[in-house]
Specification:
Length: about 260
Amino acid sequence: MKNYLSLLLVITTISIYSQERPIVITGQIYLDSIPIQDVHIINKSLEVGTITNEKGMFEILVKKGDILLISHLNLEIKEHIITTENISSKNIQISLPNKTYVLNEVVIKKRKGIFEVDKDIMPHNTPIVNAKTLNLPYTETEKAKEKKTIQIKSGVAVNLEGALNALNGKNKQKKLLKRLKIEDENLLRIRKYFTDGFFVHQLKIKKEYINQFLSYSRPRGIIQLYQKEKHLELATILLENSKNFPQLTEKEKTTITSSKLKN
């Protein structure tokens, strides 16, 4: 009986130890089924990180319950908790949501013709002047109606407008991904040029938020300054932006708060 209990205790201990011991798992990051390159994955629990390749694949050391921070310069940040299923399959598939930008309202008005009369500024008794009263040619010609369907020889009617919209949607998505990749490469060059030590020790930005900080600073034209080799002006802008960036190190947060209280 004692031998049986000892064996059971050993098996239980091994089982618990195997669950808590970190292992290497593989994964893939994608956007709308399209693999995404240069996505940063950081294990906040073990403080290790990696980056996806051109196929969106990555490998990282994890254990059950670890929190993965997944970030890309032009996509929403996402966190994933490692589950028992992830540990068993040694695989993880993660879809990142697209970043949403809120634009100001735009009002589009109908373009006025050269003979259109503005009723608000013209007197009521003035003669009407338009293409018809001036006897201009083609005034009676009606605009041809647009055909929105195509008749195929097989007899199937295809909605042209819907087909074009579908093609345009795919083209827009490809152009967006291409633009995001170019911007991502430029921001990574900026990070490599200044090094992580500059962002962590000089700007007091947490290491896992450096990419997010660069994306936050992008509207200030940092990519253009880097391409023009205006490094001193670029460093000044990064320093100014770091003062208002929310993800500072805990030490710097305390310093800023103390300064405000003294004032």
